[in-house]
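Shipment paperwork, digital attachment
Item: protein structure file
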Amino acid sequence: MEKEDQDRLAEPESVVVGRRDFLRGAAAAGVASVGALMQATAVRAEIWEEGEEQCRAHVKERALGDNIDDALLMGFMQVSSTLTGMPLNSEADRRLGRQYLERYARVDELADLLPKLVEAHKKGREQPNTNAAEALMNDRAVRPAAEQLIYLWYLSAFYLPLLDPAVPPPVKDPRLWVYGTTEQFERALLWKVVHAHAPMVQPSGRPGDKPQVWARKPQV
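Attachment content:
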């Protein structure tokens, strides 16, 4: 083991960057295509994962209906590609998109907005000389849905209000980041934008490649 690696392992626990703390900073700093959405207020939010007691208590969900079909998935992937600025056309992207679509359809606050977002995107694409992404973000009726979709692809999380902000634990901003699976976290588009792997995750790559270490400057 190199001395630099030994020194890093010997560092006190307080300097280790945890996933939750890192995402607070990432949300505040933003990325190139979604910087306007990553407001500084986001860093004050609590960050919980799906399945935690806090999420079950404070995020209202609905049963997954039978309205998720191939047509809706196609529309979901198309609007996702427009809003993220990424092609999202591989089989792996579609599998991840299906997972995100099901997560989106379960959130009570967002489920009814999803068809409206897909339909607004379809109409926008039919208009000549129209920036579809800009049109969606300027449409007050679907902008909240568009924002959550961007959060989902770039951070693998929703940013949702608490049902009852008075319920402990108290937070300065009565909203929370709700994450999905570890795999979704690893595949968040943020890591592709910053040319790194997710923190605390062993990167995959070619045999012999050195792991990208967050303590060092990324080799772009």
